């Protein structure tokens, strides 16, 4: 991935807000509708590295699918990491949004205007 990319769900108000702010700032970016263009396990691993987070840090545990899978009970340790990553790839609705990958190789979960501006400044 090069340049700025934002993973969005168009139905999500925080995603729409992030896009509006990027447009106001004149940012150049690529939109990825991750529910349709589902990230592979490798792409999820790469984004986690860029975020400096673990898969459970970007899992929406309140989603119906999360409850069905019982993710709240899953161990949050190195041995369980791949299980979480597989779940995020198989159930992309569980991925926290929006995620912006910044120009400098880092990424942020851009749920606030401050986080979007942070990504723009990198």
From TrEMBL:
SUPFAM superfamilies: Thioredoxin-like (SSF52833)
The keyword Phosphoprotein is assigned to this record: no
InterPro entries: Arsenate_reductase, Arsenate_reductase-like, Thioredoxin-like_sf
Top-level taxon of origin: Bacteria
Repressor recorded as keyword: no
Keywords noted in UniProt: Oxidoreductase
GO MF entry, a single one: arsenate reductase (glutaredoxin) activity
A Pfam family matched in the record: ArsC
Family, similarity comment: Belongs to the ArsC family.
UniProt name for this protein: Arsenate reductase family protein
Native source species: Streptomyces sporangiiformans
């Amino acid at each position: 991935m090069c340049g700025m990319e934002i993973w969005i769900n168009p139905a999500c108000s925080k995603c729409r807000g992030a896009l509006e702010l990027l447009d106001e700032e004149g940012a150049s970016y690529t939109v990825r509708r991750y529910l349709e263009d589902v990230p592979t396990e490798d792409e999820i691993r790469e984004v986690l590295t860029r975020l400096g987070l673990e898969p459970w840090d970007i899992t929406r545990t309140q989603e119906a699918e999360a409850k069905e899978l019982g993710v709240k009970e899953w161990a949050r340790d190195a041995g369980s990491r791949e299980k979480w990553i597989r779940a995020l790839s198989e159930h992309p609705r569980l991925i926290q949004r929006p995620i912006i990958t910044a120009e400098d190789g880092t990424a942020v979960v851009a749920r606030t205007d401050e986080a979007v501006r942070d990504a723009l400044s990198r």
